[in-house]
Amino acid sequence: MKNSSPLAFFHFIGKRVMNIINSLGAGAIFFSLSFLKIFRAKQLREIIQQVFYIGAKSSTIVLFVGLFTGMVLGLQLYYTLVKFGSQGVLGSVVALTLIRELGPVLTAIMITARAGSAMTAEIGILRISEQIDALYTMRIDPLRYLISPRMAAAIISFPLLTAFFDLMGILGGYLTGVVLLGVDKGAYFYRIREYVDIVDIRGGFIKSLVFAVLVATICCFQGYFTHLRTDSYGAKSVSISTTTAVVYSCVTILVSDYVVTSFLM
Fold first, then answer.
1. Alpha helices in the chain, H assignment, sequence order
2. What backbone phi and psi angles, to 5 degrees, belong to 173?
3. Residues 6+ apart with CB under 8 A from 41
4. Are 179 and 74 in contact (CB under 8 A)?
5. Which of 48-57, 138-147, 223-232 shows the lowest mean pLDDT across its residues?
6. Is 154 within 8 Å of 55 (Cβ atoms)?
């Protein structure tokens, strides 16, 4: 009888909406507590270790993807611009596309795939093996010890890797446009200098910082509360939490990219 009631549909929708609101509130509190603990004493060593793990170890894949993204952009844009006799602006179009959009977005997705998933899995294993509970018994704050260094490292690493991605992408566009297709070298770099403004660069870095906060919060949150999942338990809960963290992070990156772009335009 309950399922056939006309109010059953609204009950289902309301329950879903309340679950989403509860999750968003819990995530906001989780981020606030973790972020404030970044500035506590004796955090520098852990932050440096996480910068190495999240940033330095992700640099190879970021540079590789950036190079070939720029090469593909240079190839596609060249054959589009040549139809209008505007191949001379290839450098500025490649640079602006990378700096404004593709650089921050693809960098965040690559870091999520490599480091974000690992963060979720590592914290999730610590949770189900009761090592986080052991930290409580030793009067060690798990948020300060586990989450805050990763949050700080993400905030540091995302903008730096975004800058490297942009530079490699511009180099990739140069290789395709100038070396392979014969666009004038001087025109390529002149157009970049002429049309790329500090506002464009600043907007890209703002996006990378937003993505850093979102990815670090989502991945750490999913791992930290793995034990509260109702759809699985044990090792399976870690795998589901890791998958959920990556999917949620990628979707959130794209949604927040639109929102931030709307404010920056």
1. 8-36, 44-54, 59-81, 90-97, 103-111, 117-128, 131-137, 142, 148-174, 185-195, 198-224, 235-264
2. -65, -35
3. none
4. no
5. 223-232
6. no
Residue 252 near residue 214, CB atoms below 8 Å: yes
Q: Dump pLDDT digits (tens) for 193-245.
A: 989 899 999 999 999 999 999 999 999 999 999 988 777 777 888 999 999 99
- Cβ atoms 167, 204 nearer than 8 A: no
Distances (CA, A) of 263 to 119, 159, 185, 256: 30, 19, 35, 11
Two structure tokens written together for 217: 């919060």
Q: What does the pLDDT look like over 72-107, one tens digit per residue?
A: 999 999 988 888 888 888 889 999 999 999 999 999
User: Sorting pLDDT into bands at 50, 70 and 90, what band is 265?
Assistant: confident
> For the chain, how long is the longest CA-to-CA vector?
76
